[in-house]
């Protein structure tokens, strides 16, 4: 079951925008992050939830999508995320967030997959602009944005040989292909 969730937990970049993600679902996903590991148990992360069209539009305007797809500006209207979770670090608690936000993001996305949703972790963010648009407190540092919704695209994994290109790509049918290194190429000891 966990392997199926992880395999299905791809970076989805196109969604059924008109299919809402409820506030209760977003809170449930953040609770999964809350229950996850935190370095020194500091729990310095805070979350901003958005599922209303006007807030979603503001967040969308501050994001860059799919760096390897050079001629794709991001999802078109109707294919944009139905919701977002902005992961922030509270600098009043800690100045170093370690990998907490990565752990939290993975927990959120695995929970989303279990609910039939998909998402994308975005790190290419106009942070200052987003902070101003949403009037976020100064002590909160934007770390990641998670886009969420019901996926409107098919994503497949492609096993690649050593030296092969790792850039994701789309075929003429708009299927998104994600190259993954082979297991035998990433384990250094087979004892």
Overall description:
The protein is α+β, with helices and mostly antiparallel strands and about 190 residues long. The protein folds into two domains: about 1-155, NADH Oxidase, CATH 3.40.109; about 155-190, putative fmn-dependent nitroreductase like fold, CATH 2.20.180.10. The protein has helices at about 1-10, 25-35, 55-60, 100-115, 125-135; strands at about 45-50, 85-90, 120, 140-150, 155-160, 170, 175-180. It has a four-stranded antiparallel sheet. Strand 6 and strand 7 form a beta hairpin. The longest helix is centred in the middle third of the chain and has 15 residues, at about 100-115. The two termini are about 25 Å apart. About 30% of the residues are buried. The mean pLDDT is about 95.
Offer a concise description of the structure.
This protein has 191 residues and is an alpha+beta fold.
Features:
alpha+beta, about 190 residues, single chain, putative fmn-dependent nitroreductase like fold, globular, NADH Oxidase, four-stranded antiparallel β-sheet, 5 helices, 2 domains
Strand order of the main beta sheet, please? 1-2-4-3
The CATH architecture category of the largest domain equals 3-Layer(aba) Sandwich
Radius of gyration: 17 Å
How many β strands by DSSP?
7
CATH top level of the largest domain is Alpha Beta
Q: Average pLDDT, to the nearest integer?
A: 96
Order of helices and strands: HHEHEHEHEEEE
CATH fold-level name of the largest domain? NADH Oxidase
CATH superfamily of the largest domain: NADH Oxidase
State the helicity in percent bands. 25-40%
- Approximately how much beta-strand content do the residues carry? 15-25%
Please identify the oligomeric state.
single chain
Span of the ends, CA to CA: 27 Å
What's the shape?
A: globular
The tally of helices reads 5
Structural class: alpha+beta
How many separate domains? Answer: 2
């Amino acid at each position: 079951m966990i392997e199926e969730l992880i395999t299905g937990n791809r970076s989805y970049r196109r969604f059924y925008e008109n299919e809402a993600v409820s506030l209760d679902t977003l809170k449930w996903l953040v609770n999964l992050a809350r229950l996850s590991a935190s370095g020194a148990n500091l729990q310095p992360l805070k979350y901003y939830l958005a599922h209303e069209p006007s807030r979603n539009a503001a967040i969308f305007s501050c994001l860059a999508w799919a760096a390897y797809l050079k001629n794709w500006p991001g999802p078109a209207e109707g294919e944009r995320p139905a919701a977002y979770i902005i992961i922030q670090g509270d600098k009043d608690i800690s100045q170093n967030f370690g990998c907490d936000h990565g752990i939290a993001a993975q927990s959120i996305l695995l929970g989303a997959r279990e609910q039939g949703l998909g998402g994308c972790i975005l790190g290419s963010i106009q942070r200052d602009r987003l902070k101003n648009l949403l009037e976020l407190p100064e002590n909160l540092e934007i770390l990641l944005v998670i886009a969420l919704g019901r996926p409107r695209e098919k994503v497949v994994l492609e096993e690649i040989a050593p030296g092969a290109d790792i850039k994701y790509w789309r075929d003429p049918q708009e299927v998104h292909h994600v190259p993954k290194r082979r297991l035998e190429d990433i384990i250094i000891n087979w004892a």
